[in-house]
Design goal:
With 66 residues, this protein is α+β, with helices and mostly antiparallel strands. The chain has one helix at residues 24-35; strands spanning 2-3, 9-11, 42-44, 47-49, 51-52. The strands form two sheets. A three-stranded antiparallel β-sheet has the order 2-1-5, with no helix packed on it. The protein has a two-stranded antiparallel ribbon with strand order 3-4. It is elongated.
């Protein structure tokens, strides 16, 4: 996840478990969560800076369809 100086997501990449994102609903839910989350930006020499963050995301939610 790349975070800008204001703490907003710029971009993301899935390192492991990308097969989960084949489900459009799951991918949309992840992207919306990342877009609307404010992160604390990294600092460099006392000021905010663009940074890269690795997140571990897991879910215990079980969805039953049918």
């Amino acid at each position: 996840l790349t975070v800008d100086e204001q703490g907003h997501m710029l971009n993301y990449a899935v390192v492991e478990g990308g097969n989960v994102l084949q489900n459009n609903s799951v991918r949309r839910q992840l992207e919306n969560s990342l877009l609307f989350t404010d992160f604390a930006p990294a600092t460099r020499f006392g000021g905010p800076a663009i940074s890269k963050v690795r997140l571990l995301i897991s879910s215990s939610q079980v969805t039953v369809e049918g």
